[in-house]
Amino acid sequence: MDxxxxxxxxxxxxxxxxxxxxxxxxxxxxxxxxRNTRSYFVSIMDYWNHLLQADIAMLTCLAEHxxxxxxxxxxxxxxxxxxxxxxxxxxxxxxxREEVDHxxxxxxxxxxxxxxxTRIQYQAGDEQTVEINLNGFLLHLFHHQTHHRGQLACILSxxxxxxxxxxxxxxxxxxxxxxx
Length: 180
Fold this sequence. Notes:
This protein is mainly alpha-helical. The chain has one domain: Four Helix Bundle (Hemerythrin (Met), subunit A) (Up-down Bundle), CATH 1.20.120. Helices cover 56% and strands 6% of the residues. It has seven helices and two strands; from the N terminus they run H-H-H-H-E-E-H-H-H. Strands 1-2 form a two-stranded antiparallel sheet. Strand 1 and strand 2 form a beta hairpin. The relative contact order is 0.22. It comes from Vibrio porteresiae DSM 19223. Keywords: Metal-binding.
């Protein structure tokens, strides 16, 4: 599998895991979604908001570097991109997550190995300037998502919810042995 195809696989994994975990969240009350989890982020909704905002920040960076290719205009989505607001309604979160995940999947279908070696520069959350190739940037995007979704899966299991299979071969089996 070529390098670009790995990102297609990771984007599908990301999308499908978000659907699985958000589906599990539908079994919780609004109060449970806001309850203090005594973990890295205060509540389940805090986790979802962090993931969404981080993804939007990273996609914005790609758009600013003209590396965001999508079938839908990035700036016409219903989410106010530059605004860091808290979404406390699960249905609204699901809608926004679906929009962003669609963009991520679509973007990966336009990647080439040459493009993945493009250097980009951005301001990290701690205001440090980071220079990295697109390959490393996307690895960070997908590892960040996987890390926090793992925390969410643990929290949801503590509520007695089954989030389903989380292993890559079970979630995206069709892409493991294929090319794009």
